[in-house]
Every structure is written in structure tokens, then in C-alpha cells.
Amino acid sequence: MSEPKAPTPTPAGDTYKGWVFKWTNYIKGYQRRWFVLSNGLLSYYRTQAEMGHTCRGTINLATANITVDDACNFMISNGGAQTYHLKASCEVERQKWITALELAKAKAARMQAESDDSGDDFSPSAAPGQGAGSQNAEFQSAMRMLGSKVEDLSTCNDLISKHGSALQRSLSELDNLTLTGEAGEKIRQVTERATLFRITSNAMINACRDFLSMAQTHSKRWQKALQAEREQRVRLEETLEQLAKQHNHLERAFRGAAQANASADSKSISGPGKGEVSDDDDNEFFDAMEEAPEFITVPADPQFHKRSSSNVSSFNSEICQDDQSLNEEPLAMNQESPSQELVPLKKRRTRIPDKPNYSLNLWSIMKNCIGKELSKIPMPVNFNEPISMLQRLSEDLEYHELLDKAAKSHNSLEQMCYVAAFCVSAYSTTVYRTGKPFNPLLGETYELDRQRESGYRSLCEQVSHHPPAAAHHAISDRGWTLRQEITVASKFRGKYLSIMPLGTIHAIFEKSNNHYTWKKVTTTVHNIIVGKLWIDQSGEIDVVNHTTGDRCHLKFAPYSYFSRDVARKVTGVVMDKTGKAHYVLSGTWDEKMEFSRVMQSSRGGENGTEGRQKTVYQTLKAKELWRRNPLPDGAETMYYFTALALTLNEPEEGVAPTDSRLRPDQRLMEDGRWDEANAEKQRLEEKQRTARREREREALNQRSSSTSEEGVPHENYKARWFEHTEDKITGEAVHVYKGGYWEAKDQGKWEDCPDIF
Questions:
Q1: Using CA atoms, how far apart are residues 320 and 581, in angstroms rounded to an integer?
Q2: What's the rounded Cα separation, in Å, for the pair 689 and 664?
Q3: What is the DSSP string of 653-673?
Q4: What b/e sequence results for 122-155 when a residue is b if at least 16 CB atoms lie within 10 Å of its CB, and e otherwise?
Q5: CA dist 622 to 331, 332, 409, 625, Å?
Q6: Quick one: CA torsion of 162, 168, 174, 178, rounded to 10 degrees?
Q7: What contacts 24+ positions apart, CB below 8 Å, involve 328-337?
Q8: For the chain, N or C: smaller number of CB within 10 Å?
Q9: Where does the record place Polar residues bias (predicted)?
């Protein structure tokens, strides 16, 4: 498990959370799961990170039975298909859970009863509500009180009207009497005042009647709306129940086939509820459309090399022959000792200002942009992170030590393992990074000089704006060079964003002259409209050594709710030019990668998809090749930046005037001044558009004055530090570093740099 060990669960208000072991099946037994008890519902997840998007199961405690088996085991069942067999780590923890569950059950039952009563007051056919009884009772009481007061007011108005009419008649009788002088004048004044009083009383009566009618009308509307919500909830519950039954059926069908082939000793594993079907996610809801793995790995016999060939003839296999011996030798034999590492001469920052809590509706901006290129959508800085795409590209060097080890490796196949691990490690920084980097301005550069600390220097330049393209060149004193030109194609699909990096990455090792190339996979940002944003990587990568012909095929499995595999899984096989497998790689792109040496391979596995046979690899014990560095303390308030990312935008002296560190809108955003950053961003973009129109005008004038139009570009822009050429390996048109930047930095000569900020 990659999660940190959680402390004993503690209640927080009406919520209770903690790790509990849950029975899964006869093969895996009890597995640790994260349980959350809230509002009378007990839900569980594989990890705490899944709480934002994937619930593995929920049971309503209002109708559930809770039984204790022994000191640590207890069971929760709702009398139907849901039964959870749970085990606490100790008796004290089990008692805490039992107490919390019983209290939650009593409260849920009480709330359901109150909801039933209030539903009867509302409508005889109203469905019982759960968790809303007190609110409904309060609403009904308020409506009855309002109706009673309005009736009292109406009665008072009737009395006023009755007595007012009598008074008017009496005054009329007095007015008919023959009176002279002051008495007659007084009677006329009283008559006028009585008439005004009657008119006012009638107006008040009419207003009260209108109010009563309006209150009754709205009461009926509220009643209908609440009834519709209840009916909708019932329909959703029925739909979810039906869906769960269908998933359960698929799960049983798959596990039935799997258990039929299980060995007898696996069936003898003790566990609760012998013979019953488990409701868990480890074998969860197997998706029949899920793509089967391309190969199977099984442990090799430690004494394999002592066996005779007759013992394994049924495998129709071939033994890997390699210039290395068959004993299990770690790849990390060339690691540098800590004493040889250079001590950093400059103390880098470890914090940036916390991200402000500004709310902005993404959908209000994106709803009119469906199907458009992401780079052409005007976005406020609220959705950005305070680094540019050039700096994000430089983050690929987070685990440069993998290339250092690869450069020291004497075997090309081992070197391939390190290069493949470096390829995967570049995605580990994206797992929580849902912010969008700033689109670089044309001519913008970024240098990352870590020569004295880590032995390498890196330079990026934005060489094209439409389509956006960035060229990157890094060279290390430890014997490797990395270069790439990446063009990002992105589409907004309504529910998710697809980001497709186009371009080839090159890694060249000076000592062995090995030249590797590979491409990037597709990045998908989910839950754009509703829910918590999360990122997935999917696709396949072929890492090719053009010098020796070695190849590594990596597969990034897309996330699937129905998948039985670990999330963010990556698998790969390292093969020589003849197609013979030497190493198997496995792991996740957000956590770690391991390698296993292949001792034997065969085509004797189960049939895969479309009737193809899977390759079976017998391997030695897996060893760790790479592991992600932990995030700094407080990373969640600093855009989930890694230790390297926190230093990328740190101000430095002597950089080019086009460096991303000097970009004003980006700096304002990092300082938390987002309104000013938005205004500055608009100014820079308008300045860039003005410069582009000027270049187009110059190109047009050049075209009109030339006798031939051939070879005249539409926009005569040339990159400052990279030149446009054809790649000799791939044949692609790329920008390659032409030199001169670091010399210009040493001399402080930046006269040829454009004014973009």
C-alpha cells in the first residue's frame, strides 16, 4: 500500500473515518479499505484519494444489522445483497467502530421515521424521506402557523367591515337630521373620516385576501416540488440498485470462472461466510470490454539454470542469453555514492505564497469553447498555475539522476531500463496538478542552470505560437544530452480535456553513442463540468535505441472503474533487436517503477483478446528502479508543486530578458494579485498580436517586392537560439539548439533578444 499508515479513527462531528480490513475473496482474503461513516451511510474506498471521485460501495445503516463475530471481527448486512465482513486492527478499535455504527444507525432510523411522518402531512402518496424529517416537520409547522394567522387576520377584517358599515349607517342617519351651526359641521367631519376609514379597511381586506391566495398557491408549488424531488430520489435509488445488481452479476460470472481454476490450497484459506460471494472492489465489477494484458509474468525457479532442458520442453521456450550471468543482479550497481555528489552552492526557496481562494465558474467560460483548440481559448489566470509551459517542460528533468545512471551503464539493455523509467517519471509531477501553465509568448525563453548542483544545463524557447511549439535542449557533464520539440494539440470535449503532445524526445549518451527516441502519451483532465478535477495518462510509448536496435514498449493503462488492476498502471518489456525479452517493467506513473529480469519466455499462456496467445515471462524477483519523491510540506496550498517546481520561477540574476521568470502577469499571479495579473495578461497578449501583425506586414511587403514568391514565409519569424532543420533520425522538421546562449549569458550580451514583456 502506498498510503501512509493512518492513526486510529476518530470521530469528527457526525462523521467517522478510518482504515478497516474488509473481506474480499478466498484468494486475497482481507484487504485494507478506507471507511467513512456519515449521515447514516457507511461508504468505503480503496484509498483516501478516491474519496473525490470513486466510491466502492455504500450501505444504509437505517435498515442494517450489525453483529459482532469475535474480538476483532464484525459484520454489517442490510438483509439483501450487501454484506460487509470487517476486521479491526484490535479489540479497542473494533469497539469504537461498533459504538459509532450503533449511534449512526439509531439516528438514521429516527430521521427516517420523522421523514415518514412529515411525508404523510404533505401528501398521502409521498415517499418516505431519509435524513430530512426534521426539515419537513419544521416547514409544515411554519405553513400551518402562517395559515392560522392569515385566518385570524381575515376574521378581524370581517369584523372591521361589519362595524364600519354600522357606523356609516348611524352617521348617515345623523346627517339626515336637520341640524344647524357647529353641530352640523362636526357631523360632516365625522362622516368624512368614517368614509376614509372604510375605504382603508376595504383596501387592507383585499390585500390580505391576495396574500392568503398567494401563500396557498406557493404552498402547493413547494409541495409539488418537494414531492417531485422525493420521487426523483426514489427513481435514482432504484436505478442504482439495478446497476449494482448488473455489476454484481458480471463480477460473479468472472469470479466463477477464475475460482474454477484456483488451486485447492487457495480454497482452504479461512475466512467468514464460507461459500458466499464477496462484494468487493478488488475483483470489482469486471468489465467484459476491458483490454486484456499483453503478457503474463510468473516467478522463475531459483534453480532454473540447473534444470535440464527436458523439464521445460512443454513451454516451447527460449532462454535469455546475455552477456550478464543469470543470477539476480541489480541494475543500480553503478549508483554514485552520496559523498561524490556535488553540494549545492545556492540555497533554493522551499515555499511560494499560498494560492488565494478565488472562486470562478469554469463552465461559464468553457461552455462556448467546446471543440476548440485549448491554446486559443482566452483563459483568466484563475485556472493557471504560476509557471509557464517552458518551465513545465523543464520539469521533465525532475529525475535527471536516472539519465546519470543510464550514462554510466555498460549494458545497453540496462541503459534502456533507466531511460524507460525516466520516460515514466516525467508524468509523476502531474498527478495533482490540475492548473494550466501559462502559454509562452513567442520568443519567450527559460533557462534551468543546475550545472554546479546536478551537472546539467537546460534551455527552452517558444519557437512558434500557432501552433504553439517549444524547443528544449539539455546537456549534462555526466554524459548525456536531451532534446525535444513539443507541439501541444488540445481539445475541450465538454466533460474532459484531451491534451496530446506531438513531437519526439531524443536522449543521446556520449560514452556509448546510444541514441534513444520516444513520444509522449495523451493527458486527460476529467470532471470539467462537475466534480473534482483529476488527471489521467493513457496510451503507448515505444522507446527505441537507434544505435543497437533495442526497444522498450510501455503501456499506460487508462483509468477504468471496472478494472481489477491498480490505478495509473504502467507495464513494459525491454527487448533486443531480435525481439527477445530481457526485462519486464511494471509500476505506476505516479508512484514507482520496478524491473524484473526475464529468465524464460513462452507462448503458452491463456488466450488473450481475439484468440491471440499471451506471452508468459518467467522472471526473477522485482527490484525498484525509480520512486517518486514526496511532495513538500503544505504542497496542497502551493499548487501541488514539487521541490523542483517551487524553484522554477525563483528570480535569478543574469538571465535573458525574455526569460519566463521576468514575465509580469505570471509574477503577479504567484504573489496572489490575480486581478492585476489578468489585466497584465491581456496587455501582453495584445502586444504579441500587434507584433505578429507587424511581422505579417513585413512579410507581405517582402513578397510583393520579390520577383519570386517561392520560399517567402507568411510570417518571417526565426527563433533566436534554435534553428529549423530536418532531424536525421526521424525525418521530422524540428528546431535544434544552435548554441550561443550560455556564452551570451557569460558576457551579458542580450542585444538581439526581442522585447516581449
A1: 7
A2: 17
A3: TT--TTBGGG-HHHHHHHTT-
A4: beeebbbbbbbbeebeebbeebeeeeeebeebee
A5: 11, 13, 19, 9
A6: -150
A7: 328/597, 328/620, 328/621, 328/623, 329/597, 330/623, 331/405, 331/409, 331/414, 331/417, 331/418, 331/595, 331/623, 331/625, 332/405, 332/623, 332/625, 334/405, 334/408, 334/409, 334/410, 335/405, 336/404
A8: N
A9: 260-269
Distance between CA 552 and CA 545 in Å, rounded? 9
Q: Please give the Cα distance from 587 to 599 (Å, whole number).
A: 20
Distances in whole angstroms, Cα of residue 400 to Cα of each of 48, 308, 422, 623: 30, 44, 8, 20
CB atoms within 10 A of CB 460: 29
Please state the length of the chain: 757
- Give the H or E element holding residue 571: strand 569-575
Cross-strand partners of 515: 508
- Whole-number Å distance between alpha carbons of 276 and 258: 15
Quick one: cell of 86?
470487517
pLDDT number for residue 80: 66
> Rounded distance, CA 14 to CA 108, Å?
11
362 vs 398, higher pLDDT: 398
> If residue 462 lies in a helix (H) or strand (E), which one and from where to where?
strand 456-465
d(CA 516, CA 507): 5
Cα–Cα distance measured from residue 327 to residue 755, given in angstroms and rounded to the nearest whole number: 60
Which of these ranges, 252-261, 494-503, 693-702, 738-747, has the smallest mean pLDDT? 252-261
Q: What is the pLDDT of residue 309?
A: 40
β-strands 73-77, 15-25: how paired?
unpaired
Q: Torsion-angle region of residue 48: left (phi > 0), alpha (psi -120 to 50) or beta? A: alpha
**Cα dihedral value 108, 112, 113, 115, nearest 10:** 140
pLDDT tens-digit readout, 291-344: 556 676 667 665 554 443 434 333 334 334 443 433 444 454 444 444 445 454
Q: Which string of DSSP letters, residue by residue, matches 106-153?
A: HHHHHHHHHHHHHHHHH-TTPPPPSS-HHHHHHHHHHHHHHHHHHHHH
Query: What is the rounded distance in angstroms from the CA atom of residue 400 to the CA atom of residue 477?
Result: 12
**What is the CB neighbour count within 10 angstroms for residue 96?**
18
Tell me whether the omega of the peptide bond preceding residue 713 falls within 30 degrees of 0, making it cis.
Answer: no
Cell numbers standing for residue 463: 519557437
DSSP letters for 338-402: GGGSPPPSSPPP---PPPP-----HHHHHTT-TTSBGGGS---GGGEEEEEHHHHHHGGGGGTHH
Instruction: Please tell me the predicted confidence (pLDDT) of residue 492.
Output: 74
3-state secondary structure of 307: coil
Report whether pLDDT(575) > 90.
yes
Bin 348: left if φ > 0, else alpha if -120 < ψ < 50, else beta: beta
Cell of 545: 535505441
Query: Which pairing describes strands 436-438 and 384-388: parallel, antiparallel, or unpaired?
Result: parallel
Which of these, 610, 605, 566, lies nearest to 588 by C-alpha position?
A: 566
The answer to whether 564 and 557 are in contact (CB under 8 A) is: no
Q: Give the residue carrying C-alpha cell 484468494.
A: 27
3-class secondary-structure state, position 599: strand
Q: Would you place residue 208 in the very low, low, confident or very high pLDDT band (cuts 50, 70, 90)?
A: confident
